[in-house]
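hey
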């Protein structure tokens, strides 16, 4: 219970293990009900079997006209104190997408950190004049 798992293309956290079913809460808050006999015969990936540490990750779309070097450098400064922090351009198609990533002790801490990273990115990008 509490392990972060992937099963049949869905990611989530094991909420309950019953006699005949296992309940997994997905990232989008749906609840998967999986028969235990399927779990016994299918592949399930357990991402937290050794550690509950995970990553907070936030993607921010920016206009292609943005000075990406300046934006990435500024955002790196904002996350420099976080564990295993990284900021990088993750895509260029229609907009530029910048991703901020940092380690968190568990899923709940990652969710809180994601909220904080969004606020930091918004403040910094507004200060740079990317968003007015």
């Amino acid at each position: 219970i509490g392990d972060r798992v992937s099963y049949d293309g869905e990611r989530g956290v094991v909420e309950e293990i019953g006699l005949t079913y296992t309940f997994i809460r997905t990232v989008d808050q749906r609840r998967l009900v999986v028969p235990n006999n399927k779990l016994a015969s299918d592949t399930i990936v357990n991402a937290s079997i050794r550690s509950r540490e995970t990553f907070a990750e936030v993607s921010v779309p920016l206009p292609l006209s943005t000075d990406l070097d300046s934006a990435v450098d500024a955002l790196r400064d904002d996350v420099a104190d976080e564990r295993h922090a990284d900021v990088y351009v993750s895509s260029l198609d229609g907009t530029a997408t910048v991703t901020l990533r940092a380690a968190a002790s568990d899923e709940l801490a990652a969710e809180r950190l994601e909220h904080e990273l969004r606020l930091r990115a918004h403040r910094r990008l507004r200060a740079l004049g990317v968003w007015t």
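The first strand starts at residue 4 and ends at 7. The longest helix spans residues 107-127.
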